[in-house]
Structures are given as structure tokens and as C-alpha cells.
Amino acid sequence: MEQQRTLVSSDFDHGAFSVAALRWFTGPWDPAPPPATGRRIGFADIEEIRQVTSAFRILDNRLGGGHVRSPVVEYLHTHVGPLLRDGRATQQVRQELFAAAADLTKLAAWLYHDLDRQGIAQRYLIQALAMARHADDHGLGAEILAAMSQQAHYVAQAGQAVDMARTAQAAARRAGLPVLMTECEVMEAHGYAAQEGGARACARALTRAEAGYDRATTAERPPWLDYFDEAYFAAKIAHCFRDLGRPVEVEEYARKSLRMDPTYRRGKTFNIAILAMSLAEQGRLEEAVEEGRTAVDMAAGLTSARVYRYIRDVLGALGPHAGERDVAEFMDYAEERLPALRVRAARP
Predict the structure, then answer these.
(1) Intervals of CATH 1.25.40.10 along the chain
(2) Is the pLDDT of residue 232 over 80?
(3) What is the dihedral angle through the alpha carbons of 253, 254, 258, 259, rounded to the nearest 10 degrees?
(4) CATH 1.25.40.10 fits domain 229-348
């Protein structure tokens, strides 16, 4: 239990992702030998893990990481872990088992990331990457590397975000998944957007991503890539323009991103929030307050530190106009609906 507390409170290790990415390509990655003891497992066991993972992912998108983290970690360590250690299976089944475990482990990482516990989230991502390699699944490896890129961007490691995105592209190329390549290219663009002087490199990466988008969306994809559609792509582009400080383009793509599946409640909250920010930065205060109220209402009930960060950013964008009655009323409203934000401290 003491080790668990240490891991949960640990910090993001700035060098760990680079080492993990290098090992992805260079090894050694000797496959784990089939254990001599334990019960026989088959494809039915793997399908159960995939269905449970899918159900947890739906709940995460609707409720936020705080509501889902404990049962996911419990299931991973008490059910999936013993199968990996002790289950007897053919090599094919064992590879599929590692792939299913990698996907679930990536979800566990994302739940901790959503709660802003970045150190343990990073460790779960590294473990998920190792599992994907044992499964010899380059596509899933690319997806995990792209997640590493996003986390690196979130913790203000823009250079590392670019490196992870480019490594992810190499894995996606081996997997032959065009939609995954598009995702990795837009993640590369996002990393450049956060770098000083990175606007041109960002534009080049976005051009590559957009050029391959049509081909990407018509190709077959694995179930764990179902979320990537036109709305998700638009949201990623909006985030790039947000980092570049171009609110007009942010608004254009943020509005496109709202044509998304409504079951992705947390993602839609993000997208409405960045739309509100872009409107505030353009001086369109009435519209910004209206969208901000919608984002606050959607955030209520979500246990997500990332959502609270987006709401704080909306308040920050409106801060210079705090003397305006509508803006002041919105700040009071946000404080009432989301008291944990302590939004008064963010006012100028």
C-alpha cells in the first residue's frame, strides 16, 4: 500500500518516454514463455476483457476518470494480471491476451491522466506499450505512443510530444493503418504548435494529416480507433490553432468538432470550452459567456481535472473583461456550479 501511494503521487519523468520508445524498436522484447501452471484460457476470456474495457471506456467518456478509475484498476490487477502471469494458452491466444491487456492498461493510464496524476499515468502507458510489443501489435503500439505524445504536450514537454508522435507514425506505417497515421500526424502538429517558432512545422504536419484524411476514414480500422472521426479530427486542429494564438481558426474548427457523438460528454465539454475561449479572445463576450455556461453545465458531474483546467482557461480568457456585468455573472455562476474550481482566485 505504501508503494501504491508513492506511485500515485509520483511526478512525470521527462526521460522515461524516450527510453520506452527506443526500446519499442530495439528490444530486447523476448516473448514471455507460456507458464507451466494455471488454467487454460481461450478467445472467450479475451473477448470478455475487450467487452469490459469497452464498457469502462463508455463510462469514462460520460462521467470522467474519477468515477471509473477504481473498478478499472481492480479489474486489471485482480483478473487480467493473473491471466497474464499464470494462464496457459497457445501463442496466438497469448498474443491476443497481451493486446487486450495493453488496451485496458492504456485506459487505466488515461483515467489517471484525466485526474492529473501524471506520474502513475505515464507508468501505465509505458507498461501498455510493453504489452503491445509482446502482442506484436504495431497499430496498438502506435496508438499508445500517440497517447504518450498527448500527455507530454499536457505537461508542457512540447519537444517530447513531437518525438513521441513521430515515433508513433513509424509504428503506424508498419501497421498499415491510414487513420492512425493521420492521428499521429495531427499529434505531431500539436506538439509543434506549443513550441516557440513552431507555426511553420505545425502547418506542414497539418497539411500531411489533412491530405491523408479522406483515405484514412474509408479504410478499415480496429475497434479501439472508432472514436477518430471528422469531429475528433477538427477538435485536434482547433487545439493546434489555440496554441498558436489564432482564435478565428479555433472557432472554425471548434464548431466543426461539435458535430460529435453526444455520448463523448467530456470531449464535447473540452470542445465547447475552447470555442468559448476563442470567442472571448475575439471580444465577442455575449457569445463567449453563453458557450461558457454550457461548458460549465456539462462539467458538473464530471470528475475530471482536465475539464476543470479547461473551465479555468475559459475564465482566464474572460478575465480582462471581468468588469462587464455578463462576465461577472458568469464567473459567479461557474463558482456556484463548480465550487471546487475556486474560480475567484483566477480573477484579476
Answers:
(1) 229-348
(2) yes
(3) 0
(4) yes
